[in-house]
Every structure is written in structure tokens, then in C-alpha cells.
User: Fold Sugar phosphate isomerase/epimerase from Irregularibacter muris.
Amino acid sequence: MVNKNVFKHSLLVSNIFDPLTHDTKTLEKLYDDLSKPLRYQSIETRLIRDEHLINKFKSIKSKNQWNTTYWITGEISRAKLNPSSMDETLRVKAVNEIKRMIDLASLTKCDFIGIASGPCEDENKRYDQIDQFQKTILEILEYIQEKSYSMKVVFEPLDVFAHKKNVLGKTDEVYEFLNRFPKDIMKANQLSICWDSAHFALNEEEFNYSINKIAPYISRVHFADAILDKDNEAYGDWHRNFDQKGFMNEHVASSILRQIIKTKVHQEEIYVAVEIREHDASNVWNLEEYSYRFVESAIRGAYNK
Assistant:
């Protein structure tokens, strides 16, 4: 019998509600408002640093039993740090900063810390950088264990040549990378991936092949759209709205989730979110409603065919 409780609603707060996330008081009210419908099982957001908001969010999270992911990819990038840098001094600096972020994340009993592999510094040294990223992940996992945090690590494979130009993104390389780690780490889901439709599309990958190969490692799915025409000025990963110019729609979204189910080797719980970045504060709640309904339709469609 097919388990129809695999997919859980997640909300990318820092994308959908971006205009409301840059002021502490506004953000506090936002988390309060989001807790009232009780319809999300997961919240994905930026690291919380304000002491008052840490205490407030911890209380809201506990009440709502939100599975919480802090994505630190942007902060690491803005600090000009690279967790896969060939410069060992810079890589260690990145690791130390990630450890500080993990300590902060633990104050709200964060469930996942989310990162990406970082930009490729030299195409001829891509595989050397993958080795560097492996060292970083191992050091992070060891630190979490040393501190007795219940936190897990999720990394997002990004596009490798189109826009973000990260070290890790192609399915076969992601699969090989994940299989480097001890089986007990993978069995406990201490390390997993976020499967983002835009990045795999920009990597010119066939979705079903990708899902079939790495399904056991997928703990969350981001429905994101992209313009795939290289001559179009909008080509790349821009967290754009879903329209006829891109590839993402409810049919595609359902087929992604359906393929995960078909593999029969997926994780017991997979968190699903829409990744669209809103810039207009007056439209954020309309986008939230649209995103929720989109995910709801995709989950329903995954089981109906």
C-alpha cells in the first residue's frame, strides 16, 4: 500500500515573504501570523540572530511543531566564503563561520542547517573542490555530534554552468559524493539533499533519471522555475514566478513527486515548498496562498495517476 503521508507542506519564508524579513518586529509578527492557520509542517528561513526573536521563534516552533531549516548559503556567499575552496585557509574560515551559525541555530532547536557546495573556482579543479567540500561536511557533522545537537545537514545541489556555477550539482556527481560518507550517517539521514527543479533543469538533466538515482537522499523538494533558453536575458536561477515562459506547472510538479513515490526507496518524510521570491510587500500573502495551493495540488496529483 502506498503511504500517502510522505509529502509535507513547507514554506520558504525568506523567499515568499522576503520584503517582511529584514526588520525584527515585522518578522516576529510574520512568524506569529504564520502559526495561526497551523497548516505548515516545515518552515525554511534565514538564521535568526536577534535574542528576543530567538526566544519568540523557539516558543512558536515548539507550539506548532515546525520542522525548521535555516538556509545559510546566502550568508556564506555574502561573506565571500567558500566551503569547497582550494585555499585551505579560506575553507577553514568558512567552516568556523558555519560552526558559529550552527551554535546560533541550536538556540531555537533548529532541525536542519542548509548549505550549498559553493562556487567552482577552476573548472580543472572541480573534483579537487568536491574533495574539499567533503572535508567541510565531515567537519560540520563531527561538530554537531560533539555538541550533542539534534541538528542534521541538508545541502542543495545547484547549477554548475548556467548561473550559480557551483561545484556540486549534476546528479551523477552528487550520487558519488553522497556515497563517500559512512553508511550510518546516511541511514540516520544526518546528511541529505534538497532537490530543486530549477537547478536540475539548468544542469540539463532528465528529472526521472535524477530522481531514480538519488531518491534515498532527498529530504525536501523545491519547486522552482527557470528560463532555459540560453539566449534569453532571464536565463538562470532567479526564483521567478510560474508562467508559460518557464517549465514549471502543476503537472510537472505532480510528476516529480509521483516519480519519487515510484522509486520506493524514498525517505519517510519529504518536505515540499515553492521557491518564488516576492519583491512586493503588498502581494506576499497572495503568493503564500498560491504557493500553498500549488503544493497541495502537486501532492494530490502525485497519487491520483
The mean pLDDT is 96. The chain has one domain: 7-304.
